Known about the structure:
Strand content: 25-35%
Bound molecules: zinc ion
Strand order of the largest sheet: 6-7-5-8-10-11-12-9
CATH class of the largest domain: Alpha Beta
Helix content: 25-40%
Amino acid sequence: xxTIRDITNRIETFAPNHLAEDWDPIGLxxxxxxxxxxxILVALxxxxxxxxxxxxxxxxxxxxHHPAIFKSLPTLNEHDSRRKEYIDLIRSDIALYSxxxxxxxxxxxxxxxxxxxxxxxxxxxxxxxSYQSELKLLVLYTPLDDAKSIRETLxxxxxxxxxxxxxxxxxxxxxxHFTPENDADPTIGEQNRAEEVxxxxxxxxxxxxxxxxxxxxxxxxxPYEEPVFHIFDIGKTDxxxxxxxxxxLKEPKTLDEMISKVKDVFNLSHVRTANTSVDQAxxxxxxxxxxxxxxxxxxxxxxxxLYITGDISYHGAQDMIRDGLxxxxxxxxxxxxxxxxxxxxxxxxxxxxxxxxxxxxATSQEDVFKFN
Length: 372
Ligand SMILES: [Zn+2]
């Protein structure tokens, strides 16, 4: 059966934890990584609607974008509406896991989904770079019989992703030579006798942040007492990770057209805008899901004609107006794109990994704000 660890390993290969901001309490908030699960509910937030939906639909694992516990808990009693939700979740034996700013920043994650939705040419540029990946090359020697399974475990750990290709490796066969000494406990051969084994040389690329995970996988899965491998620095890649995206529209649009586009793709009745004239031409657009006000200077630096984000405050709007940056505040709920996109990804991984899990999108959530 599939455990939560199986699922979260795959999620964290897509959106590695080190991409999350320091303040962000991502990961497993409730339950155990060892829990065996059958049904996942994907949602933007955890609230009483999500909880009810999970209970009604007999879900055993909720996967949200926003972490469920943001503030520390001095007590856990039922006389606080938020803490009551936590208690009810635990009583229902439902686990909860979140992937937040790591999904915002990763390639092909939240901000790429949003940029794609409003028609920015792909791939678009990162607005605020928080991490630049370095590339490493692993060269590993393994007995022929174990070669395939070792390569598979390396790929599961995230090694061998090259552009749009996964499970990329190069192999060649040869002979490994060694003589186990007195204290050795060899898998193949005997102490103080020269041994020769047919081995495969496996070469596979991986991003530097995976190094400790890759080494863990080698020591856990390689049959030898002392696996032989080398890790080489290949240098920086042009792969940037970070918050927000900036890119160009295929055709310039007027602000009016952009407002209609944003309302249409995110299904909004209203947006808030300022600093704009309706027939101003817009070609270069910056977008940040969630509360992106603090990144508006980067949008200016990257020559954006328009900045799209959510939760813009009165004074934040004044700053943007002063600096001449037109904006559309589309609200925080445009991040609900998470639900549809993550459900689709989990369904793909379900097939690839043979998990036999049912994955459903939450339907109980709506924008907290209403326009009258
Ligand atoms: Zn958010």
